[in-house]
Design brief:
This protein has 12 helices and 9 strands. The protein is of the alpha+beta class. It is elongated. Bound molecules: Dihydroxyacetone and zinc ion.
Length: about 300
């Protein structure tokens, strides 16, 4: 009898392992998951994700949820309250990076480093339905991501799906030396490189230094995201939002590149912001006109 029951145990364990592998692969092969993983790898290669820095969330479409549901955990864990609430995200599903997990490792083992969470019907709690294996939890910034998704869904008529937080060096360095003022920082970035005003025509918001990971920074950021699709966290990093992975990564990349150019030009100029050549405000207006942009007029002189 003992031989039979241990054989049955081994079979059950084998079946569970096969099921895990199949469900892992089925979800990992979905195009949205490949896009998610690629962004994590690209961010790591840019040098924006030292140690476990940075995080990414993606709001799934109805079709994507339907395709993945057969592979969700049969017995999801308890609901976990977030300390924030959003009516327009009741019942939503998000892909999220894991708290304490490294962007560098996502590509090697997505199911360990990334998970799918379901939001409850009240819109104030999550539970893991796939991935984040071995006791993982959503990113420590999940409350900030969640509030920002809520605000951007409203601001974009449901277009926004991606929120990406990274620690790009040059943006962080600028917040050490420039006034923490959205108008002043946006103008420096717009004038650093011609296409900036095309990529972020409403400008970039700025949050003063705050303790990361809690409801306070979530609320402060989401107030700004009513106007902007990107917000700088002083001495910490940058939050970007967008309809897809390419646009959101592109926004992060463009803002960071402009910060680098501005910082380099300041250094070449002996730290003076009085540049010999720049784009004047009429030049910015001309770009807005020719590219048919709605820009943040209050940021022009
Ligand atoms: O380490 O980036 O803001 C994760 C973070 C927290
Ligand atoms: Zn961070």
């Amino acid at each position: 009898m003992e031989v039979i029951s241990s054989a049955q145990d081994a079979l059950a364990k084998g079946a569970a392992a096969i099921k895990d592998t199949v469900s892992g692969a089925a979800v990992e092969n979905q195009p949205f998951m490949k896009g998610f993983v690629r962004l994590c790898a690209d961010g790591w290669l840019q040098g924006w994700h030292e140690r476990n820095g940075g995080n990414l969330t993606y709001r799934m479409t109805d079709d994507e949820i339907k395709a993945c549901k057969p592979f969700f955990n049969a017995n999801p864990d308890e609901w976990v309250n977030m300390g924030v609430q959003a009516d327009n995200l009741r019942g939503a599903y998000f892909v999220t990076t894991g708290s304490g997990r490294y962007m560098r490792n996502v590509q090697l083992d997505p199911a360990h480093n990334v998970g799918i969470v379901e939001i409850n019907e009240v819109g104030d709690a999550w539970r893991i339905v796939w991935g984040l294996t071995d006791g993982g939890k959503p990113t420590s910034e999940f409350p900030s991501h969640f509030m920002n998704h809520s605000v951007r869904v409203d601001a974009t008529d449901g277009e926004c799906r991606v929120i990406y937080h990274a620690h790009p060096d040059n943006v962080i360095a600028l917040t050490k030396v420039m006034p923490l003022d959205a108008r002043e920082i946006t103008r420096a970035l717009w004038k650093a490189m011609t296409e900036c005003i095309v990529v972020f025509p409403m400008g970039v918001g700025v949050v003063e230094w705050m303790v990361p990971g809690g409801a306070d920074i979530a609320h402060a950021t989401s107030e700004l995201m009513k106007t902007y699709d990107a917000a700088i966290w002083a001495q910490h990093g940058l939050f970007c939002s967008g309809p897809d992975f390419d646009t959101t990564f592109g926004l992060m990349h463009t803002i960071e590149k402009a910060a680098k150019i501005h910082g380099q030009a300041l250094m070449m100029n002996g730290c003076s912001g009085e540049f010999l050549n720049t784009i004047d405000d009429d030049g910015l207006r001309a770009i807005a006109h020719d590219f048919n942009l709605t820009i943040n007029e209050s940021f022009l002189d």
